[in-house]
Amino acid sequence: MALSLHSVNAQELEENFKNTVDSLINHAPKTYHEIHTAIGNYSSDTIKMSYLAKTAAVQNYKDGQVYALNHIGQRLRFLSHFNQALEKHTKALEIAKTTSNIELEILSLNMLGILYRRIDAITAALDHTYQALDIAEKVENPNFAIKSAISTSLNNIGQIYRVLGQYDLAIEQFKKAMEFEEALDNRLGLASNYQNIGECLEAQGKLKTALENYNIALEYNKELKNKRGRILCENGIAHIYVHDKKVNEAILILDEALIQATDLGEPGPISSVHLTLGWALTDLEKFEEAEKHLFKGLELAKKYNLLHTRAEAYSYLSDLSIAKGDYEKALKYFKTSLDVESQIRNNKNVRYVYSSIIKKDNEARVTTINQQLRKNNTRLLVSGIAIALLAGIFYILYRQYQLKNDKKLLTLEQSMLRSQMNPHFLFNSLNSIKLYIINNEQKNAVHYLNKFSKLVRKILESSSMREIPLAEELETVELYMNIENIRFSNEIDFKINIDKNIDPHTIRIPSLILQPFLENALWHGLSPKLGEKRIELNITKKVKDFIDISIIDNGIGRAAAERIKQNKVLKRKSVGIEITKERLANFSKDYLNSFDVEIVDLYDSNDNASGTQVILHIPTA
Questions:
Q1: Per-residue pLDDT tens for 138-169?
Q2: How far apart are CA 38 and CA 596, in angstroms?
Q3: Is the distance from CB of 432 to CB of 444 less than 8 angstroms?
Q4: Structural contact between residues 32 and 145, judged by C-beta atoms closer than 8 angstroms
Q5: DSSP string, 519-539
Q6: Closest CA relative to residue 470, chosen from 500, 512, 501
Q7: Domains of the chain, with CATH numbers?
Q8: How far apart are CA 453 and CA 451, in angstroms?
Q9: Which of 7, 18, 87, 2 is nearest to 54 (CA)?
Q10: Residue 451 DSSP one-character state
Q11: pLDDT tens, 377-422?
C-alpha cells in the first residue's frame, strides 16, 4: 500500500513539474530572476532540467533552454563530471549569444570561467570570467542578476589568484565581491566569500583571523541549510584545529563532515575531508588509519583530475612518511607534490594572470582618462606623457635587468671554462703523457695524447653552448676520467650506468657541469685513500620531468678530507661547484621545475666513512 501511494505522489509530482514547464514556456519570461522564481526549486535535478532544456528547445524558448543547460552543467561540475559540464555550458553560451539576453550570456560565461578554474585551466578561466565582468560592468542601471553576476566574476577571479598562491590579490577580489553581496543581501554569496577569505588567511598562517571567517561562513551555511558550504567550512575549521594541536576536536568535526560529504556525493568535498582526516591522524601517530584516508582522498583526486587536491594529497603523504621515518619515500612524495602543483602554478599561468591584471588596470586608467578628456584636455596630455615616461622607465629597467642577467651568464660561462681548463690539470696531464714518452711507451703516449687533444677540443666546443645533449656530456666526462686516471696509475674503476628508460641523446643539460664534482671525488675523496678506488656515475629517472645524476665514490669521506685540507699549508678554495650551482639555477629558469644538489655522506656497517654521494636533480620540463 505504501509503495502504491509513493508511486502516485511521484506521478503527481511529475505532472506538476510538466505543468510548471508548460506555464513557464507560455509566459516566456526573459530575466534570470523570473525564470528562477518559477522553476528554481528543481534547478539541482538534472533529469527535470534536461526535460526543460528539450521542451524549451522544441518550443524555441531559448532563454529557458540556456537556464536549464547551465544548471545541468553546474550539477555535473559539482559531481566532477567536467567534460559533460563543459559541453552543457558551451552549448548554453552559444545559444545565449543568439539572443539579446545579456543576463544569460554573462551567466554562461561565468559558469565556464568557474568550470575552467576547477580543472585548473587558468588562462581559459580568466578569459571567460573577465569577458563576463566586462559585459556586466557596461550595463547601465544593472538589476539584481547583473550585480550578482559581477560578484560571481570577482569571486572566481579571487579563486584563481588563490589557486596560484597570490593570497593578497585573492582577498582583495573576495572583499570586492562581498560589497555586492551585502548590497544584495545574498547570504549564500557572503558565506562563499567568507570561506574563501578564511582559506587565504590560513595559507598565510593567519590562523585566528582565518577561524573567524570560517565560523561566520559556517553560520550563514547553517542558516541556509547549505550542506556543501557547511562541509567545506567544517573542513576549514578542522584544518585550523590541527594547526593548533586540537587534533581530537578536529577529528570529531571531520567524522561528521565525512558522513555528510558522502551523502552529498560530490568527489571534491569527499576527497578534501579524507585528506584532512589523514593529516589529523598522522599527528596522532595513527599511521595505518591516516594512510588509508590519504590514499582514498588521492584516489578520488586522480579519478576526477582534481590537480590541487592531488598535490595536497602527496604533500600529506610526504608528511606521513617523515613521521614514520621513511625519508626516501617522503622525498618522492614531496617531489611529486611539487610536480603536480607546478602544472597549476607554472610561469605561463602566473605571467598570464599578471598581464591580465595590468591590462585590466590600463583599461580602467584609459576609461578614467577619457572621462577627464571631456573636462580638461591638458590633463590628458600630461597623463599621456606620464604614461609614456613610465613605459620608458620600465623598458630601461627591464633592459638593465636583461643585461645584468646576460652579464652574469657570460661571467658564469667564463668562470666555468677557466675551471675546466685549470692550468694545473693541463700541466699535470701533459706531464703524465711526457713520462710515457720518456719511458719509451709510444703507444700509451699517442693513445693518451689523442684523448687529451679530443678532451680539450670538446671542452672548447661545449663552452660556447649553453646546453648540450647528455650523451655529449658523458663522452667529455669519460675522456676527462681517462686522462686523470693516468696520474692514479689507472687504479680507478670508473663506470657509467644509464637507466633503460633514458635516452641520453634527447635530454639536454648545461654543458660541462659534471667535471667539478668528479674532480672533487678524485682529489679529496680518492687521492688520500689506499686500496680499491671506485667512482660510479648513475643516471636515473625516478620522478616525471626530472633526471637524477648520481656520482658515488668510495673515498675517505668529507670529514676526513676536510681535516687533511685544514692541515695543508697552501689552501686552494674550489669554486667550480659553486659556479656549477649558479649555472644550474640559470638553466632552471627556463623550466617549470628547479634543480637541486644533494650531498650524502656514506657509511659502512661499522659506521665508518665509506665515501660520498652527490645527486643532481635536473629538470627536463
A1: 888 888 889 999 999 999 999 888 887 788 88
A2: 60
A3: no
A4: yes
A5: HHIIIIIITT--S-EEEEEEE
A6: 512
A7: 137-225+346-375 (1.25.40.10), 226-344 (1.25.40.10), 408-619 (3.30.565.10)
A8: 6
A9: 18
A10: H
A11: 555 556 567 666 766 665 565 556 555 555 544 444 444 444 444 5
Nearest CA to 135 out of 104, 167, 112 is that of 104
Identify the CA nearest to 236 among candidates 216, 210, 255, 262. Answer: 210
Compute φ and ψ for 195, nearest 5 degrees.
Answer: -65, -45
How far is it, in rounded angstroms, from Cα 599 to Cα 225? 56
Query: Which spans in 464-551 are helix H?
Result: 470-487, 515-520
The C-alpha atoms of residue 292 and residue 275 are separated, in whole angstroms, by 10
Rg over alpha carbons for the chain, rounded to the nearest Å, is: 33
Distances in Å between the Cα of 552 and the Cα atoms of 483, 491, 531, 540 are 19, 16, 17, 13
The three cell numbers locating residue 556: 675517505
Closest to 226 (Cα-Cα) out of 254, 191, 274 = 191
Count the alpha carbons within 13 Å of 138 in the hemisphere toward its beta carbon: 10
Block residue for cell numbers 590541527? 242
Question: Nearest to residue 89, comparing CAs of 63, 110, 103?
Answer: 110
Q: 468 - beta bridge partners? A: 509
Looking at the DSSP bridge assignments, the partners of residue 493 are 534
Neighbours of 426 (CB within 10 A): 13
Measure CA 25 to chain center: 46
Inter-residue contact 270 to 276 (CB < 8 Å)? no
Question: What does the block give as the cell for 339?
Answer: 610536480
pTM: 0.55
- Is there a contact between 312 and 275 (Cβ–Cβ < 8 Å)? yes
